[in-house]
Structures are given as structure tokens and as C-alpha cells.
Amino acid sequence: MKPEDRENERYAKEDFCKVSKEEKMMLALLKKTVRELNLSNDAVHVLDIGCGSGRISKQLQDLGFQVTGLDFSEEAVKKAVARGIDARRANLDEGVPLPDETYHIIWAGDIVEHVFDPIGLLRESARVLKPGGAMLITIPSDVGLVSRIKMLFGISHQEGMYMTSGFYKHHTFFTPRLIRFMLEKAGLRITDFFTVLILGHYRIPVRYLPSALFNEMIIRAKKIL
Q1: To 10 degrees, what angle do helices 118-128 and 176-185 make?
Q2: pLDDT in tens, the chain (225 residues)
Q3: Do 108 and 114 touch, CB atoms closer than 8 A?
Q4: Which end of the chain, N or C, is less surrounded by CB atoms within 10 Å?
Q5: Whole-angstrom Cα distance, residue 118 to residue 188?
Q6: Hey, where are the domains in the chain?
Q7: Selecting from 3.40.50.150, 3.40.50.720, 3.40.630.30, 2.30.29.30, what CATH number does the domain 3-141+173-223 have?
């Protein structure tokens, strides 16, 4: 099955992209950026890359932001458009099909790990950001304690997904050091870095702890002028 067909099949069955603790933390960073830009919400242009069916885009739009969404799945884009989002289909591994310096904010919730060329996507994101703009990212940290214990006993951290879903769509094994390197390579500098420990349905914000004790990162990175 082609990747786009699999994604269309998934989105035909249900919606994804629910708002969780990480997205609430991203929203706080978005509001912080808007204050720094000294703009009203309706003057702020937000690009949601990997917008899915538009559930988060819709919440951002309801707050007054001017939102554009991009997603790989035609089925997801149709659902986002039905929610009133300016959503378009795009293969992010082929670039961001939008003009330079168009957006104040790029919202990248759990998407960077899904592309084959994350540095390319981050560079494209920096290109379409306005000066002073920021990229907001949630991304897994793949060196958490659970992953380390599994590897110690010869168990791949990908096994669970393959055994339940038949596929695993994360193409890069991320660490805090690696995402920082990639962002700087793309012309983006981290200004805010938060971490979350995910245990089943529980999400616990943690700070100032070793990488073994968290498995999700929430990042704000600004365009280097």
C-alpha cells in the first residue's frame, strides 16, 4: 500500500491530533511569541504543518489567528477544509510550497520525526518564517528510560507499534542534542525547551532532569537573523 493511501485510510476511519498537555504548552509559547511581536491575534499568520484533520488548526483559528494547514493526506485535508481551515495537500519531504517570509508562527506538532529529511523540513520552515518568527515543535526524545531498558534486554522500542499497527512512521531517532543540531543547521535557535514524561495516558511536565527521565520535548526556536 502506498503511504498516502494508508494515511487516507486512517483518516477516513477517525480523527487524530487531539489536544494534549504538549499542545497546551505549545499554545503558551505561541501566546508568548505574539506578545513579543506586539501583534493582535488576527494579525498573526500561523502555518500548521502536518495539520491532519484540522482539529488543532480549528482551535487556533477560533482564537483569532490566521491559519494555514498542510498535510500529506488528501482525506485529512478534506476534513480540515470542512472545519473551515485553509488546508492544502503537501508532501513535506518535497518542501513547503509557500512563499518566503509569510508566517509569524510555524506549528509543528509531532511531525518532524515523520519526514525522511528533517533538516530539509526545518530549513524550509525557516525560509517561510518572517523575521522574529518562531517555530513551535513537539517531538519525541527516543532515549528515555523505558527505551533504554528495552534496548538493554534486546527489545526494539518500535516493536509495540509494529505488532499493533503493522507500521512505524518515525524515521529519525531523536535526542535533545540531535534536534538542537538540526535546528541550528537550518537557521533556527532554541529559545525555550521543555520536557514531558509520558506514562500511558499520563503526561507529567519535568524540568532540569537527565534525558533518561523524559520522552517528549516541547521546543520554541526562533529564526536566526
Answers
A1: 50
A2: 677 777 777 777 777 667 778 899 999 999 999 999 999 999 999 999 999 999 999 999 999 999 999 999 999 999 999 999 999 999 999 999 999 999 999 999 999 998 999 999 999 999 999 999 999 999 988 777 777 787 788 877 777 665 676 665 777 888 899 999 999 999 999 999 998 887 777 788 887 677 777 888 999 999 987
A3: no
A4: C
A5: 13
A6: 3-141+173-223
A7: 3.40.50.150
